[in-house]
Structures are given as structure tokens and as C-alpha cells.
User: What shape does this take?
Amino acid sequence: MALLNIHTFPDPVLRKKALPVTDFDQSLDNTAQSMLETMYVSSGIGLAAIQAGILKQIIVIDLKSGEEDISLREPHIFVNPKILKKYGSTVSEEGCLSVIDFRGDVERAEKISVEYQDVKGNIHQMEAEEMMSICLQHEIDHLNGILFIDHLPVLKQKMVKKKLTKLAMANA
Ligand code: NI
Assistant: This one.
């Protein structure tokens, strides 16, 4: 599997909208597998295709990504995911492979009901809570060009974005 290059803030590709997947072919499966590999080597628990510059509605998540024993991993692939319902609210600290060296508290729905397709195109529904709920909301945001730092209070958001932009320019 080819490793993918992860784009980081303020790369404009992260602001684009991903398009629905319509072809459930081998190349979709290959893309999802490459995304999982890229996520594992980057020590992330979630990755959206758009972070690799692929404008498709594909997300991978593995909350056990950090397990040393790889037989304990729990890879999930979500194609064309949609949030059907949201319940409650919760605040937790988030980070992102596209936002280097910054973590921050974000408020999100506590539980969600999601509809998605697998790589074969079969439709599934799922109730997600705790970490899976937060991770799904974070990744689905990516598909709409939204980053977790967009949810920070306005002043903090301005500060963080300025700092991250400076850092990116310094490293360019
Ligand atoms: Ni992210």
C-alpha cells in the first residue's frame, strides 16, 4: 500500500468539500487501505481522504491505533457518512494530523446516529458515543472543509491560526 502525503493547515485543500463516492470498486478499497496505513504510521486515530488531497467522502478510524500488538487493532472504514441525529453535548481535547503541534477543547454532540456505506456500497446505520462519536464528528467535519480549530472561541481561534500559519511559513 502506498503511503499518502498528509496536507496540513493552512493548505487550502483542507477547505474543499469532498464529493460522494459513486464507484464501489477496487480502487476505493485501495484508497481506504492506504489511508489506514498512513494513519497508523502517523499515530492518528482518524483520517479523512481530503487530508491526503483526495476529494472523496471516505473516512478511516481506529481507536486502537496506538496498540503495539497490531492484532488488537479495530480499523473502521466509512464511505459517504452522514449524521442523522445528534444527542447531548460534551467537551473534549482534540488534535488533528493536519494541525501540527496544537490540541484544544472542542464541544460536540455526545452521541450521534450515523448512516454510511462500506467499501462494497452496503448501507449501515450506527449509534456512536464517547470517543467514536467525537472522532466521527471530527472526520465528517473534514469532508465539509471544517477543522477542529474552527470550533474554538473566536479570539483563541484567531491566535492559533495566526501562530500555525507563521509556523507553516517558517517550515516551508
Ligand atoms: Ni483531523
About this structure: DSSP finds three helices and seven strands in the chain. Residues 96-98, 138, 142 surround nickel (II) ion (CB under 6 Å).
